Amino acid sequence: MEAANFRPSRFLAATTAPSPPPPAPPPSDPRSLHFLRHDSTTNSPKLKPPSTFSVRASAGVHNNPVVTLLDYGAGNVRSVRNAIRSLGFDIKDVQSPKDILNAERLIFPGVGAFAAAMDVLTQKGMAEALCTYIKNDRPFLGICLGLQLLFESSEENGPVNGLGLIPGVVGRFDSSNGLRVPHIGWNALQLMKNSEILNTIRNNHVYFVHSYRAMPSDDNKDWVSSTCNYGDNFIASVRRGNVHAVQKLRVKVLEVGNASKLAKRVIACLDVRTNDEGDLVVTKGDQYDVRENTKENEVRNLGKPVDLAGKYYRDGADEISFLNITGFRDFPLGDLPMLQVLRYTSERVFVPLTVGGGIRDFTDGSGRYYSSLEVASEYFRSGADKVSIGSDAVYAAEEYIRSGVKTGKSSIEQISRVYGNQAVVVSIDPRRVFLKNPDDVDFKTVRVSNPGPNGEEYAWYQCTVNGGREDRQIGAYELAKAVEELGAGEIMLNCIDCDGQGKGFEIDLIRLISDAVNIPVIASSGAGKVEHFSEVFKKTNASAALAAGIFHREELGIGSVKKHLSNEGIEVRLTPYKPPPSRFSRPWN
Q1: Please, which residues bridge with residue 460 across strands?
Q2: Taking Cα atoms as reference points, which of 10, 111, 16 lies closest to residue 67?
Q3: Those residues with Cβ within 8 angstroms of residue 482's Cβ, 6 or more apart along the chain or in another chain
Q4: Is the bond preceding residue 182 a cis peptide, omega within 30 degrees?
Q5: Which residue in 2, 65, 241, 409 is deepest, having the highest Cβ count within 10 Å?
Q6: Three-state DSSP class for residue 328
Q7: What global pTM score does this model have?
Q8: How far apart are CA 531 and CA 48, in angstroms?
């Protein structure tokens, strides 16, 4: 399965003189992509190296403000469209092989399964046209699957033949040595040669999310422009002439250049719901209770979703997660405000976006059936990079454990089959159940660090559904193992007992789950101070830590968390640090 799509902030097409210079970038926009056509008969324009990410080529003899986009219908390409249109350029979608051959500049972003993409390209006659276009050294940028398809074949559900333009086979990361697959997060690049598009991001972290990769070899060394290390060195980008392709590059160049390996992620979570006045607001629960303890008992309102997401992006959040906490009650495709929040946010926020809530099969009032895949697809089209599945994952795991059969019909299986397991996050909402004897239950137990109210030394973690309102007879350990087998690519691990308490993450639970699975685990619930973040990374194998209320109430800033982690020797993606104002600070401090 393949990575979520590239998310540049701008695409800039330059033209020859006498054309006007490209528009100046807005001061608030941290990055740009200059995608300018090379012409072998002319010299490229002399441009001062920008402080932003850039792809350059000359425009040749035509002033054609059009970017041709090869969108075969899978995944989130809204961000690419936003970037192109924000610069005033038109987009021509590929409808036929002729559109590829006639393109002045072609961008091919891809997400999903290798075989499915090749089937589409072959059936529509586009594979041959794409090969011809690239062999003629026309301006091309492949992104994610747009890189992998250039190779000879892929082992994903295969072998499956690729376009065969670059020697090599796309294989899955080897998880047998404890490597967590998918490879998710901000990692470091090793530049192999002048790649043009990567020259300005040396020493910065770039974002990857993928399960399959191609390996450098003597046969493809002339193509390789950069590698990344995750278990072994894999190909992160290629370049030959005017042909460029990247496995996954999402860059924020305001970062302090300290990248040496995969960084731990700090994620801002926004619980979103409609308040009693009908407005969509960010809220936060105290052990999942989001109403104020007042006479009015109103929904706690901590801000507007798009505004807060933008703030956390600027503060250095590595990802943004939206949880539509009333999505389990209503039909998500009817939740137009939430879809609009995603669309607006994807225009302003250039880190990965996850959205959860109500992703399941559904039959509307008229009797029409919608699959969970259709629901997820609408979220992806609206700007999401990943979807988070909660209650429906519990039901699917229960059935799988009972029958031992993968039916292919669960939401996890449907979505991961089309979009890749890296696009599927399972959100687990357990509560701690203390035990005097670990043999009292049939579920995995742990010896707890802090005994229970009656001196109990053991506990199991009982999963819940419907926002913590209903207990299920399945443990967090059993659920995590089952959803990994069904195709989940990441786990968001909450704990109802710790939620909103500010006393730290549930280390016993996080250690149990992160040691049990080979997919990344996001620690959630309980953070109250910066030391809680370093504790969870030092004592468990969590890949990321998530917080909500402490960020919303400005008790902690994302920058202060990352500065602390860096001081503790934990690699993070650093941005210039500016302490946030605190309502608790005193004038003499």
Answers
A1: 433
A2: 10
A3: 396, 397, 400, 401
A4: yes
A5: 2
A6: coil
A7: 0.83
A8: 43
CA-closest candidate to residue 111, choices 85, 80, 86: 80
d(CA 299, CA 283): 7
Spatial CB neighbours of 240, under 8 Å, sequence gap ≥ 6: 137, 222, 223
Q: What separation in angstroms does the CA of 575 have from each of 138, 171, 424, 527?
A: 36, 33, 28, 21
DSSP class of residue 588? Answer: T
52, 224, 238, 292 from 190: Cα distances, Å: 18, 11, 12, 51
Which residues fall within 8 angstroms of residue 286, CB to CB, at 6 or more apart?
499, 500, 501
Binding positions for L-glutamine are 144
Residues 536-564: tens digit of each pLDDT: 999 999 999 999 999 999 999 999 999 99
Question: How buried is residue 215: exposed, middle or buried, by Cβ count under 10 Å (0-12/13-18/19+)?
Answer: middle
pLDDT of the residue at 347: 86
Residues labelled catalytic: 271, 429
Identity of residue 384: A
The number of C-alpha atoms within 13 Å of 491 and in the hemisphere containing its C-beta is: 38
Q: Report CA torsion sign: 188, 192, 196, 202.
A: positive
Pure H helices in 40-113: 78-86, 97-101
Distance (Å, whole) CA 240 – CA 208: 22
Cβ-based burial of 444 (10 A; exposed 0-12, middle 13-18, buried ≥19): middle
Which DSSP state fits 526? -
Q: What are phi and psi of 429, to 5 degrees?
A: -115, 85
Residues 461 and 477 sit within 8 Å (Cβ to Cβ): yes
Which phi and psi (to 5°) does residue 584 adopt? -95, -5
Helix (H) or strand (E) holding 392: helix 391-403
Phi-psi region of 417 (alpha: psi -120 to 50; beta: other; left: phi over 0): alpha
Q: Which has the closest alpha carbon to 195: 248, 140, 136, 238?
A: 238
